[in-house]
Design goal:
Elements (H helix, E strand, L loop, with lengths): L21 E3 L1 E2 L2 E2 L8 E4 L4 E3 H6 L5 E7 L4 H12 L1 H6 L2 E8 L3 H11 L5 E5 L3 H6 L2 E2 L2 E2 L3 E5 L5 E6 L6 H7 L2
Parallel strand pairs: 6-7, 7-8
Antiparallel strand pairs: 1-12, 2-3, 4-5, 4-8, 6-11, 9-10, 11-12
Length: 176
C-alpha cells in the first residue's frame, strides 16, 4: 500500500492511513547522502524563504523538512507529533520547517490553527515550484507525507515516507 497521496487538482483521498513511515533512499530528486536541492518560496508572513539562507544560519545542528497538505490524513498526525516534540527539537538545535504543497495561505493557516500547530516556520508552495524543483510527484500524485532530515551542511541524512507512527519523532532525531 502507498502512503497518502493526492493529485494536485483533484483530491483522491488517502489510500492507507495505517501505513507506517518507511525510510527510503530517494524521493524525487532528493537522495540520502547528497545535498538537498535548493528551493525557495514564501512563508506564512509573506517573507521570502530559501534553503540557501536557512543553511547559512549559524547554530543549527540540523533541519527537518515536513512536506504536507491539509487534505492528507497521515500528514495531520505527523504535524501534531512534531508540534508535541518542539522542545526536543529545540534542545538539540534542530530547525523544523513545515512545507505545504499546492494550497493557498488561508487554507494552510486555518488547517494549522485547527491542529494547534504553531511553533515552526511554515513555507507555502502555492504554485508548485518546490514540487517541480524536487520532483515530489509521480504518476500517483504528490509524495506525501514526506519528511526529509538534513545536516547543517545541507546533506540529506534521512527520508521518511508514510505515517510516522508512535516512534516518528525519535526516528527523525536519530537521523541527526
Amino acid at each position: 500500500m502507498r502512503p497518502c497521496q493526492f493529485l494536485p487538482l483533484l483530491f483522491l483521498g488517502c489510500l492507507s492511513v495505517a501505513v507506517q513511515a518507511k525510510e527510503v533512499d530517494q524521493a524525487g530528486k532528493v537522495r540520502v547522502g547528497e545535498k538537498l536541492p535548493r528551493f525557495g518560496a514564501f512563508d506564512m508572513d509573506g517573507n521570502v524563504f530559501t534553503t540557501e539562507r536557512l543553511f547559512s544560519e549559524k547554530g543549527a545542528k540540523g533541519f527537518v523538512f515536513q512536506f504536507f497538505a491539509s487534505s492528507c490524513e497521515p500528514c495531520k498526525f505527523e504535524l501534531i507529533e512534531i508540534e508535541k516534540a518542539k522542545k526536543k527539537f529545540q534542545e538539540r538545535g534542530i530547525t523544523v520547517v513545515l512545507v505545504d504543497l499546492l494550497e493557498d495561505r488561508n487554507t494552510v493557516k486555518s488547517f494549522l490553527q485547527k491542529l494547534g500547530v504553531k511553533s515552526f516556520r511554515v513555507v507555502i508552495d502555492e504554485t508548485g515550484g518546490i514540487v517541480d524543483r524536487l520532483a515530489l510527484n509521480d504518476k500517483d500524485g504528490l509524495l506525501i507525507p514526506l519528511t526529509i532530515v538534513v545536516d547543517p551542511q545541507g546533506i540529506v541524512k534521512g527520508i521518511f515516507r508514510g505515517n510516522g507512527g508512535k516512534e516518528y519523532v525519535e526516528n527523525l532525531l536519530k537521523g541527526l
